[in-house]
Specification:
By secondary structure, the chain is an all-alpha fold. It is elongated. The relative contact order is 0.17.
């Protein structure tokens, strides 16, 4: 079964993270009261962590889905897309919470609330982005788009 190529996965990750920074930084800055450049710096670091997690998570998820469900990622049904997005954001929350605490000086509970807000925003964004990406760049029979 054809899967996304490595080049396509890099394009997907870069487009996802760039779009996320553009869409999420202004509301995060407003909600946190932090200056836009401070918010952008934090979110850029979180985006780097997310990009690495994104590549790993999506590759593993796609391979498991292909192996056990015999289905390509671009044919993923809506409920599996929800499970995919929630799994991605849950893992990312575990990785980013300590970074938010260290960067902002927030307490763990306050940072958790901020991180959950980001996770919620990015979960919705991930669902929409990945659905659109799969429509714009379907997987061909050999994995090429």
């Amino acid at each position: 079964m054809a899967l996304r190529t490595w080049r396509d996965r890099v394009r997907q990750v870069l487009a996802f993270e760039a779009g996320g920074l553009v869409l999420i930084t202004p509301p995060f800055s407003w909600a946190s009261g932090a200056p836009v450049l401070d918010s952008l710096g934090l979110l850029a670091l979180l985006a780097l962590i997310a990009a690495l997690w994104n590549a790993l998570y999506n590759t593993v998820f796609d391979r498991l889905e292909a192996r056990f469900l015999h289905r390509r990622a671009d044919l993923r049904p809506p409920l599996w897309r929800v499970a995919h997005a929630l799994g991605f954001e849950g893992g990312l929350l575990f990785l980013t919470l300590p970074v938010i605490v260290a960067w902002t000086g927030m307490g763990w509970l306050e940072a958790l609330v901020a991180d959950l807000g980001l996770a919620l925003a990015y979960t919705v964004y991930a669902y929409v982005f990945n659905w659109c990406y799969d429509r714009l760049f379907p997987i061909g029979p050999t994995g090429e788009q």
